[in-house]
Structures are given as C-alpha cells and as structure tokens.
Design goal:
The protein is an alpha+beta fold. It folds into two domains: 22-108; 130-325, 2-Layer Sandwich (60s Ribosomal Protein L30, Chain: A), CATH 3.30.1330.60. It contains twelve helices and four strands; from the N terminus they run αααααααααβαβαβαβ. It has helices at residues 2-25, 28-44, 48-60, 68-83, 90-107, 110-122, 126-142, 150-167, 197-202, 224-239, 257-277, 306-313; strands at residues 206-211, 244-250, 283-288, 315-321. It is elongated, with a radius of gyration of 27 Å.
Length: 325
Amino acid sequence: MFIMSIRVSFLVASVIAAATPAAAATGVKDDCAALVTAFDHAVAAKSIDGAIDAVANIEADIVCGARTDEFRHKLIGSMIGIAGDPQVSDADRKRALSEAQQTIDHAGTWRDAEHLADYYWGRKDNLNAFAWYEKGLGFISARPAEHASPTDIKQLETRASAAKSLASDDNGGKKPAQFASSRGDMDGRVGGIYSPDLVKLRGAEVEVVPLPINFITGEAKFTEVGEKAAAELAEAVKQQNVHVVDLIGHTDPRGEHQYNVALSIRRAEALRAYLQSHGISAQINVDGKGPDQPFDASLLGRSISQDEEYALDRRVEWVRHSTSE
C-alpha cells in the first residue's frame, strides 16, 4: 500500500512537472501581457472595435480581470484621443466619443469626466463641456472617497462656470442662446456648480459661484436667458435653506467706469428683487464692482477671445458661506 502511494505521488508529480514548461510559456504574467499588448496595438492602430474587444477580453480573464478598471480608464482616454485626431473620420469620431461617454457613465471617475469635458472645452463646444464638467462635480459630490483636492475642485468649478456662461451668452439679448441648466444632485436638488457639498469638500469658508444672469445691454432688465438663470438660482437657494445671500454684480470694461459700477449695483439689486418676489425670505446683500474684478481665467486651460472675456466679465456672483445650510 505504501509502495502504491509512492507510485501515485510520483505520477502526480510527473504530470505537474510536464505541465510546468507550458505554464511558464503561457503563464499568468504572459497571459496578461498578451492581453495588454492587444489593447496597446488596437489603440496604436486607432481601432475602436479592437480596443473595446481587448478591454472585454481583459475583463473576462479570470486573472487579468482584476485590472478591468485600469483599462476602462485607458479605454476612455484612448477614445478621446482618437476623437481628437484630425485624420479620423467624422463617423469614427462620433463612435469614439459615444464609447467614451458610455464607459464614463458605466464606470468612470471625475477625472474621466473632466478629460472628456476638456476635449469639448478645447473645441469651444461649451454646452457639452459644461455638461461633462458638471458630471465630474457630481461624481465628486456623490463619491467623497474619490480623492479630489481643493485645487482640483476649484478648477472644475471654474471651467464649469465659464462653460455655462459662454453656452448661455446671448450678448445682452442681441443673439439667440440656449440656457445651460445645471444638473440635479442624487437627492434631486439643483447640483453641479450649486452643490453645497463642494464647499465642504474644499474646506472653504466662502464659495463664489459666477452665474450667467444676463441683462439687456446697458440695462438692469433680464434677458430671456437671464431670467431662466435667476429662476435656477432661486430654486437652489430655496432647496439649500440659505439664510444670507450675497450678490455681487460685475460688468465688462467697456464704457465709463462709474456708470459701470452703478450699473453692476442696479443689476444685483434687480436680482435681489427677483428672488424676493419668488419667495426667498433670506437676507440678501448686494454690491457691485463694475469692471474692477474681471473673471479669473487662469484656471480655464485654454485661451479665450476678447468677446468670451467680456461675456465672462458680465456676471452676477453668488457668494455662498459654508454655514448656509
């Protein structure tokens, strides 16, 4: 019996030894390397289907599947890269962007959303840029464990605010524009740049939210887009149970200085009157800076035209305090 046991053990050892060279040739590391190489080759070839299939193979692999999230993020980056290639066809560009968007919605992070937003922002597609910047802010609000520094959040907020303002710019009522409304948080409140969670996550005492409260040129009367922005602010203030609201009006630098300062105050006062007439009982303080505090474009990540600069300068800021709620 003892001899038989030795023979069985020897047989098992022989089978394992015989399999070892094959395992070494196609072992775990090499299996993953082959799948990673397939992904890299697909990306280099700008093959959308090839990159998608490669990630699917990584996900399906019993060992390499642990790296699925890593390669989903790489897939998003590669799709955005393909979309940005001027030699890619319009059809492939749309497919690449669609795949990036679907992957972000399914398993993306705030950095992925910011990456896609930057793609649109660099191409002055302000409406899409705004939507994805706000989605990134939404990810940060909903998933505090995903590290975003105060500087990261500030950059996202600044670009989201600028994209919102430029997408909504009607040049004082002189051109048609579509108001870029902010997305809702998971609790149904007005979110995005309005989210009170961002104040807490940044550890800031004060949050300045630039708003596209558009006015008819030279007047303190809302344009159609400006009134929609005022209504959105009223809703956010109600939902957040804000007790004190500080509003600061700003103008672009064209025209006489003192006139612009007075105009910026009148515009902030017009917004206060609107809020009060729409059920806001909070204390509302107003001020106006005219052209003296232009929009800080240092975090925008791209150059802006003179007209864009003027549009960003024309704004009303909501100065929100961390103790609002």
